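Hi there, hope your week has been kind to you so far. Do you reckon you could talk me through the fold, stretch by stretch? Thanks so much in advance, here it is.
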Amino acid sequence: MFNVSQGRRFHSAHEAHEGTAEGPKEISTDEIFKGEGGDVCGPGAFTPTCSAKHLPGFVQNVDAIKAKGVDTVVCVAVNDAFVMAAWAKEQGVGDKLVMLSDAPRR
């Protein structure tokens, strides 16, 4: 388990995938945060509770989260990048959060 605290650096992860119009794009946490502060949430795409409560809370409160010094809010799940992109669209995420898949691309 990762001990979360202010100023703690995330470990570098290179197996995350961001859904783009061109398909999955491999991206590392170093690229996402670029030395900035971040907040990470880990719901399950299209699961009832995560779709109704978890993700919407981050989307609705992203401005308040960023006002506390967070530069980037990331949602990561084991679903593939295509599912994450579809879930982001269905939830109206837009560019408010970075939606990542940690599922390996094969």
